[in-house]
């Protein structure tokens, strides 16, 4: 059992899969008033992204609106006023059938991407704010995988690798967000790094 403390921050992330569309929604809770302005900044940036999104909107410009909103906030931590920064290497994205991260990204920092949102497309507007460097550094174990739609065919020589791939294919189908090591019924996970069919979700 995990007990939350007064200084803890909790992210609640809920996913759903309906007729091939894989979506999630998340919100953050804090019990310390110190972080309320940070949460307010992130929510306001999300609201801006949703409001400004639409047919023919350029993704680079949309990112600028999100950035401007996020950076209009400050947070006071231990008597020091800190600017809120958007996380520049995280993004929202288009959602394709059976592909949670489609081919288009909605960055959180203004950029030169002239790609437009098009009629009939679905997008996840995801915003992440920080009083730190404004970048996420990947570390630790990978726990979520998804099928790569564009993965090249790689012939597998080992019977154990073929068996593992078959088990993963059967178990995961095309849905991301599953801890592979706990869902392939005891198959060795040593081959996961050599199978290009999957990518970190």
TrEMBL record:
Gene3D superfamilies in UniProt: Creatinase/methionine aminopeptidase superfamily (3.90.230.10)
GO molecular function, one term: metal ion binding
Catalytic activity: Release of N-terminal amino acids, preferentially methionine, from peptides and arylamides
InterPro entries given in the database record: Creatinase/aminopeptidase-like (IPR036005), Met_Aminopeptidase_Type2 (IPR050247), Pept_M24 (IPR000994), Pept_M24_MAP (IPR001714)
KW Disulfide bond (keyword) present: no
Any Pfam family: Peptidase_M24
Domain Peptidase M24: 5-127
Cofactor: Mn(2+); Co(2+); Fe(2+)
One annotated GO biological process: proteolysis
A single Gene Ontology CC term: cytoplasm
Domain of life: Eukaryota
Keywords: Aminopeptidase, Hydrolase, Metal-binding, Protease
Name of the protein in its database record: Two-component system response regulator protein with GGDEF and EAL domains
Taxonomic lineage: Eukaryota, Fungi, Dikarya, Basidiomycota, Agaricomycotina
């Amino acid at each position: 059992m995990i007990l939350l403390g007064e200084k803890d921050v909790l992210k609640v992330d809920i996913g759903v899969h309906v007729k091939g569309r894989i979506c999630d929604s998340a919100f953050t809770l804090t019990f310390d008033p110190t972080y309320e302005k940070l949460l307010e900044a992130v929510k306001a940036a999300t609201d801006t992204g949703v409001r400004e999104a639409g047919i023919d909107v350029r993704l680079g410009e949309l990112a600028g609106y999100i950035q401007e909103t996020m950076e209009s906030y400050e947070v006071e931590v231990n008597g020091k006023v800190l600017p809120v920064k958007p996380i520049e290497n995280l993004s929202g994205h288009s959602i394709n059938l059976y592909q949670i991260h489609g081919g288009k990204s909605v960055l959180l920092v203004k950029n030169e991407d002239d790609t437009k949102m098009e009629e009939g497309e679905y997008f996840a507007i995801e915003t992440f704010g920080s009083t730190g460097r404004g970048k996420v550094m990947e570390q630790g174990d990978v726990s979520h995988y998804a099928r790569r739609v564009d993965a090249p065919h790689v012939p597998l020589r080992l019977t154990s690798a073929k068996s593992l791939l078959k088990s993963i294919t059967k178990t995961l189908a095309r849905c991301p967000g599953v801890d592979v090591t706990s869902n392939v019924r005891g198959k060795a996970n040593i081959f996961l790094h050599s199978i290009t069919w999957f990518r970190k979700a």
